[in-house]
Amino acid sequence: MSYKKTRLTPGKAQDKEVQEEFAKVIMDTIAKAQEENSEVLFLDPTHQVHNTVNDYCWQEAGKDNTKIVHSNTGRKRVTIIGAINAITHKPTAIITEDNCDKEMMKASLTEIRKDYLASKIIYIFLDNAKYSRNYDVYEHAEKLNIELMFLPPYSPNLNLIERLWKFFKKQIRKNKYYETFEEFKKAIFEFFQNIKQYKDELKTLLTLNFEII
User: Fold this and answer.
1) Where do the structural domains in the chain lie, given as residue ranges?
2) What number of CA atoms fall less than 13 Å from residue 18's CA on the CB side?
3) Which of 43, 79, 103, 183 fits a disulfide with 178 by CB distance 3.0 to 4.6 angstroms?
4) Quick check: helix, strand or coil at residue 210?
5) Of all helices (H) and strands (E), which one includes residue 12?
6) What mean pLDDT is reported for the chain?
7) In the CATH hierarchy, which fold is given to the domain comprising 16-50+75-205?
8) Is residue 63 scored above 70 in pLDDT?
9) What beta strand segments (E) does 28-90 contain?
10) How many CB atoms lie within 10 A of CB 5?
11) Contacts of 12 by beta carbon, 8 Å cutoff, 6+ apart
């Protein structure tokens, strides 16, 4: 036996056959996009609260030597509507203090299209949030020649950007203290502005090998 941290998985995950079938849809879509001068992206919003997330780190043995990390008492948060290119790993992100709704989704799709003006079609894989399936969002996507492709319910393992969020939290959130909300927001902006410095790490992390759970 070994004493280690538990691992979370969706309690209502789809059957393995459903996941495997959709993973094939993803790979087929990527192959199709590469043939027709199109792009494939994975999109997901994330909400980051201005507070410290404590985590494991190497430190001297002994209870009295435990590293202390300051925390905040505020609950202000930043919403990031992010998308990541399946091949180039180029990110597109809208960073706001507002909640994610249909208008924010439409704005995000507009920004994505600006990043890929020369691409024929933009295929976007995303989850089944109510605001994503809104008719106005769907209509706006059509006007931009963006095809929304909805993942099976409770399948974050099939959304490539979930791995980016995990990496983001490790770099920006865990064991990191930001005294002011403005410092917190600045760190988030700088992560995306300087994301090329993580090129090698992201190449290893964002492979097209999807875990079936």
Assistant:
1) 16-50+75-205
2) 11
3) 183
4) coil
5) none
6) 92
7) Nucleotidyltransferase; domain 5 (3.30.420)
8) no
9) 39-49, 77-85
10) 6
11) 153, 154
Provide long-range contacts, Cβ within 8 A and 24+ apart, for 166-173.
Answer: 167/198, 167/201, 167/202, 167/205, 168/46, 169/53, 170/55, 171/198, 172/48, 173/48, 173/52, 173/53
List, for residues 126-176, the tens digit of each pLDDT value.
999 999 999 999 999 999 999 999 999 999 999 999 999 999 999 999 989
Beta bridge partners, 149, equal 125
Does residue 27 have a pLDDT over 90?
yes
Q: Write the CA distances from 16 to 19, 67, 180, 211, integer angstroms.
A: 5, 42, 44, 10
Q: How many CA atoms lie within 13 A of 175 on its CB side?
A: 10
pLDDT at 71 over 90: no
Identify residue 162 by its one-letter amino acid code.
Answer: E
139's CB contacts (< 8 A; 6+ apart) are none
